[in-house]
Task: inverse folding
């Protein structure tokens, strides 16, 4: 498991390749039959307004601890061989990656489910706060995330966000 | 007891301060700490709280040296 906060832009696909080629990790194991990846990127619009940049505030110390707890929880629930979780902090521009969740396992069920579980738990619990700068120069805090599950979807709580 | 209190994001802007340092006496809870340092700002029910980097309820007891944080709904990812 690798969990990192990234104060600078990162390429999620390069990060996956680097992680998987690192002999210290289990992502390259031939016993893996599946991997699932989620990449969240910054949009140039939100709630009908153009957004030119985003500042992502976090709570140093607690954010890292909470992300590790979320990944450990998924590892306890699903048979995973490896997890890579990267999350940006600071100033972010449209198109840049905000979050990467990559999961490796023997079978697809575990990778799919754990990737989604980690992402939704992160959205709901990890202490990050988005501060947007809009096209007209005004700034505002994002007050909530959009739903991560379809209304008639997976039967999960409707207040879990994405 | 000596404690540190931090406020994040929109809550920090609303209160006009990022932190409080001070003494609390007796058997106090997190809710009591808010009341002591923000007597003129009733706490919204949506405010979240952590004690020593772990989510806690508002009736969590406070101990000497604790780091307490109050913050709004999280919006990462």
Result:
């Amino acid at each position: 498991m690798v969990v990192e906060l990234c104060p600078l832009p990162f390429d999620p696909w390069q990060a996956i390749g680097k992680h998987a080629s690192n002999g210290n990790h289990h992502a390259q194991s031939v016993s893996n039959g599946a991997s699932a990846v989620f990449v969240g990127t910054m949009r140039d619009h939100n709630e009908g307004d153009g957004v030119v940049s985003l500042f992502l505030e976090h709570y140093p110390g607690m954010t890292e601890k909470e992300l590790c707890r979320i990944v450990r929880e998924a590892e306890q629930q699903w048979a995973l061989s490896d997890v890579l979780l990267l999350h940006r902090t600071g100033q972010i521009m449209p198109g840049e990656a905000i979050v990467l969740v990559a999961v490796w396992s023997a079978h697809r069920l575990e990778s799919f489910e754990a990737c989604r579980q980690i992402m939704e738990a992160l959205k709901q619990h990890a202490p990050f706060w988005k501060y947007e700068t809009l096209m007209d120069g005004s700034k505002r805090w994002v007050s909530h995330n959009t739903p991560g599950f379809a209304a008639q979807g997976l039967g999960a709580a409707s207040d879990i966000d994405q | 007891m000596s404690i540190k209190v931090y406020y994040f994001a929109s809550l920090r802007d609303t209160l006009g301060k990022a932190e409080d340092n001070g003494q609390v006496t007796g058997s106090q809870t997190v809710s009591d700490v808010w009341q002591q340092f923000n007597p003129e700002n009733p706490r919204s029910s949506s405010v979240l709280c952590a004690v020593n980097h772990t989510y806690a309820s508002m009736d969590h007891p406070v101990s000497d040296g604790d780091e307490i944080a109050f913050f709004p709904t999280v919006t990462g990812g």
